[in-house]
Amino acid sequence: MTMTVWQGVFTIVAVAVGTMATRFLPFIIFPESKEPPRFINYLGSVLPYAMTGLLVVYALRNTPILTGSHGVPELIACAVIVLLHWWKRNMLLSIAGGTIVYMLLVQLVFS
């Protein structure tokens, strides 16, 4: 399926407007001089942990625990992520280290 030029232009404009709206709207609704509502502060404190939990569940949802390596590479990689984060408190290092360990395990050890 091919888009016409005008469909492509409209799509790009719609994506640009949507992106700009989601970036600028919080600053317009909650200016720096005004205290945000307590509910917004509450969401800001709990949503990062909720999203992390959702990402963990999403990443491990299809882990085969009854066949193959029984989820051992995934479990080792998760342990490496937790240990690296506990040690260095650096999210980028934790995620990169866990990903590297997982890829090495899957490619070299559990192949």
Automatic annotation (TrEMBL):
Keywords: Membrane, Transmembrane, Transmembrane helix
One matching Pfam family: AzlD
Coiled coil: none
Residues annotated as transmembrane: 6-27, 39-59, 65-84, 91-110
Name this polypeptide is given: Branched-chain amino acid transporter permease
Taxonomic placement: Bacteria, Bacillati, Actinomycetota, Actinomycetes, Bifidobacteriales
